[in-house]
C-alpha cells in the first residue's frame, strides 16, 4: 500500500523569538516492511542551518537553527511511503520466550548484539516490578514468544482504558499501571517496561496510523495524529511490532518514523528558543492513500 503523510507543526509566540535550535524525527525509516519513496521538510521562516543525519538507532534526524527574529514557526513534513506486511509464522511455531531471552546474551550475531541495549532501563521506562509481573501473566513458562506477545498486547487493549486527558508526556509507568488508563505512548511504555523486566529486548516505535472515516462520511483533513507502539526482538524473525492501542499486529496502515528506547529518543520535534514568552501549538496530521 502506498500512503502520503503530511505532518504540520506550528508555534505561535506571544513575543518574538530571537533564536531557536530544533531536532525533528519526521522522515520515515527504511525497513524490510517499509520503503520511503520521498520525504521533504519545509521550514518557515527559512533556517540558517539545516542538516540531516542518521542517529544511533538508524533514524533520520533533521537539525535546524533559525537565527532571525520570528513570531511564528511552521514545520511541514510531507512523505510518501510504500508499506507491506511482515511475513510471520504461526505464533505457536515461534521459540519459547526464554529461548529468545537467552539468545540475546549467548549469541554474538550482530542483530543480537545491537538489541541488548533494549533490555536496559531508559529515561522514561525504568524497570518496574508491577509492569514486569503484569507481563509475566502472558509470558508463562515455555510459551512461544509471538503467542505471548500477542496475548500481552490484547490484555493491555482490554484492561486499560484509552484516556487522552489522564496522562502527559512525563506520566510515569507506575502511574499508568496503577490507574489502568492512558494513551498509545503510555501503553507502549508499559509493555516495554514489563518485557525488559523479563530480560527481553523491547523497543518503542513512533509513527502514524491511517484512519478511515465511518461509511458514507468524508475524512476530516488534519484529524489524524502521531501513533506509537512497541516491538520485540525475536530470533530469526527480527523485530516484530505490536499495537496494544488497537490490539493488532501493525500492517499496511502503520507507518514507522523512528525507533528508540522510549519516547524521549524519537520525539517528533523538540528544541530550545530564546524569547517568545508563551506560545500556542497547532499540530495537523493527514495520512491518505495514494491510488494506483
UniProtKB/TrEMBL annotation:
Q: Classify the source by domain of life.
A: Bacteria
User: SMART domains given for it?
Assistant: TGc
Query: Transglutaminase-like domain spans which residues?
Result: 176-246
The signal peptide here is none
Q: What is this protein called?
A: Transglutaminase
- What taxonomic lineage is listed for the species of origin? Bacteria, Pseudomonadati, Pseudomonadota, Gammaproteobacteria, Chromatiales
Amino acid at each position: 500500500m502506498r500512503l502520503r503523510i503530511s505532518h504540520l507543526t506550528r508555534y505561535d509566540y506571544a513575543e518574538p523569538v530571537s533564536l531557536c535550535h530544533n531536532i525533528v524525527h519526521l522522515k520515515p525509516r527504511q525497513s524490510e516492511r517499509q520503503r520511503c519513496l520521498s520525504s521533504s521538510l519545509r521550514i518557515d521562516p527559512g533556517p540558517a542551518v539545516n542538516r540531516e543525519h542518521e542517529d544511533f538507532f538508524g533514524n533520520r534526524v533533521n537539525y535546524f537553527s533559525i537565527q532571525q527574529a520570528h513570531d511564528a514557526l511552521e514545520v511541514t513534513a510531507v512523505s510518501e511511503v510504500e508499506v507491506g506486511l511482515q511475513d510471520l509464522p504461526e505464533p505457536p511455531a515461534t521459540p519459547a520466550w526464554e529461548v529468545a531471552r537467552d539468545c540475546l546474551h549467548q549469541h554474538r550475531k550482530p542483530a543480537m548484539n545491537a538489541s541488548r541495549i533494549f533490555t536496559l532501563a531508559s529515561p522514561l521506562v525504568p524497570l518496574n516490578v508491577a509492569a514486569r509481573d503484569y507481563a509475566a501473566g502472558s509470558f508463562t513458562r515455555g510459551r512461544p514468544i509471538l503467542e505471548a506477545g500477542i496475548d500481552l498486547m490484547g490484555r493491555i487493549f482490554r484492561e486499560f482504558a484509552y484516556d487522552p486527558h489522564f496522562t502527559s508526556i512525563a506520566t510515569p509507568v507506575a502511574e499508568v499501571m496503577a490507574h489502568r488508563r492512558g494513551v498509545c505512548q503510555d501503553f507502549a511504555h508499559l509493555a516495554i517496561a514489563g518485557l525488559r523486566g523479563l530480560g527481553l529486548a523491547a523497543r518503542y516505535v513512533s509513527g502514524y496510523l491511517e484512519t478511515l472515516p465511518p461509511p458514507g462520511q468524508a475524512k476530516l483533513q488534519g484529524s489524524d495524529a502521531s501513533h506509537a507502539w512497541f516491538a520485540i526482538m525475536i530470533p530469526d524473525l527480527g523485530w516484530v511490532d505490536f499495537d496494544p492501542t488497537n490490539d493488532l499486529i501493525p500492517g499496511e496502515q502503520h507507518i514507522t518514523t523512528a525507533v528508540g528506547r522510549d519516547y524521549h529518543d524519537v520525539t517528533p520535534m523538540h528544541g530550545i528558543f530564546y524569547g517568545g514568552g508563551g506560545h500556542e501549538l497547532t499540530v495537523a496530521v493527514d495520512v491518505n492513500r495514494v491510488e494506483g
